[in-house]
Write the structure tokens for this entry.
Amino acid sequence: MGGEVLIVGGGFVGLHSAYRLHELGYRVRVYAGDLSRAASWGNAGIIHQGSITAVPEVMGLLKLIRLTLRRDSYVSIRPSFALREIGPKGWLTRYVSEVRSGRIAVKARVLQRLLLESRSLWLDVIRREGIDAELNESGSIEVFASRENFEHESEFRSRESRELGYRVRVLDGDECREMEPLLSEHVVGGLYYPDDLWINPQRTVYSFADALRRRGVEVIEGFVDSVGIEDGRAYALTRNGRERPEVLLVCAGAWTRKVLRSAGLDVPVVAGRGYLAVTEPSERRLARPVICADQRVIVGQTRAGEFRLSSYFELASPEAPPDNAKFERMRRWALPVLPVLKGLGFRITWVGSRPCTPDGLPVVGKIRGTENLYVAAGHCRLGATLSAATGKIVAEMIEGKEPEVLRDLSPERFA
Ligand SMILES: Cc1cc2nc3c(=O)[nH]c(=O)nc-3n(C[C@H](O)[C@H](O)[C@H](O)COP(=O)(O)OP(=O)(O)OC[C@H]3O[C@@H](n4cnc5c(N)ncnc54)[C@H](O)[C@@H]3O)c2cc1C
């Protein structure tokens, strides 16, 4: 078909969408914002096959409150966020009603469908475009020092994987150490996900943007000032003035709500912030990423040998300053199972924002009442993974097809 598409946001969702649209013959320009602040830059890098339970179901209301009130917890809500989002149309209010909705199975199927497709789409783009992703295809391993957590999680995952068709293997402590000799004696058991991939997100995001540029996509590291709607058609105000593309697609991650507000719309995507600390390099190597499950710290390792520790789910403004004590705490949490982290200095500390909807599903679709305004955001803790399938659906949708999965992802559900 072809035509001109302007994309707001250059995280993985924007980049995959640009890639698939360009493949279909569209002329694509991406305003990527600040890539070093994108969640796609600093995430844990696991292209995951499991984890298909949406956040409101993983963390029902009681668990959310319990975890938030606990000292030293990986979940927190900043008071200013709670005050802002607790009104009748607030995000927290919608989240609470979603927890009660009982749609867990429906949502799991939607997510799993996207997850399964994303793996091969990621491999396709990395290989075809020669993206320097530091790809690791050895799966991931989730390890437990708490026997209670291990028993609960292994039973849950075994059942879920049978129902939804992903692969997971339950391991005892010795099997975990055989696979990953850097794990300590404290590990009592683990779950091995053989089909997971790992990428170095920071490297991937820049290499992907360069690959698109080589193909003729314009990727600009700069911001769109605002978007607006005139006579049913969306436009963007940029450094080039008022741009009126045939299609305007907003993929601005946790900033999506802010961007769309400038056009008078409310799509409830907020920031579930995560922290990242990258150590100096070590000569001792992990074979694959390790998820320290008891405190939810994920540890990957770059080609250069740096360990990347990430954790936390903090509901706050994307612009709020980080709580610096949290970086060292991630190491403290991971140390009992990965003693190799001891004493390594941090080279990078970073905080970034998972884009989160109140029902835990992404929001992908056309904005009603407009001819050319689309949104693709809200992938929360699975966005690195799901971005690949999302890019494909976005391209199909703009072509005028209606992939079935869009029905569950439509922005109209928040109207
Ligand atoms: C610590 C952490 C660990 C994670 N681990 C994983 C994981 O292991 N696996 C997984 O699948 N997912 C993971 N995620 C989630 C994943 O990173 C996100 O869901 C995903 O990156 C979201 O991609 P996105 O493109 O929607 O948004 P982003 O990557 O945040 O990109 C949005 C972009 O929009 C830009 N922007 C904003 N406003 C404007 C504007 N006005 N004009 C132009 N551009 C604008 C921003 O600068 C940014 O570049 C993790 C997230 C975090 C924070």
Observations:
- The mean pLDDT is 94.
- The first helix runs from residue 12 to 23.
- The chain has two domains: 4-42+203-267+360-414, 54-102+135-195+270-356.
- The first strand starts at residue 4 and ends at 8.
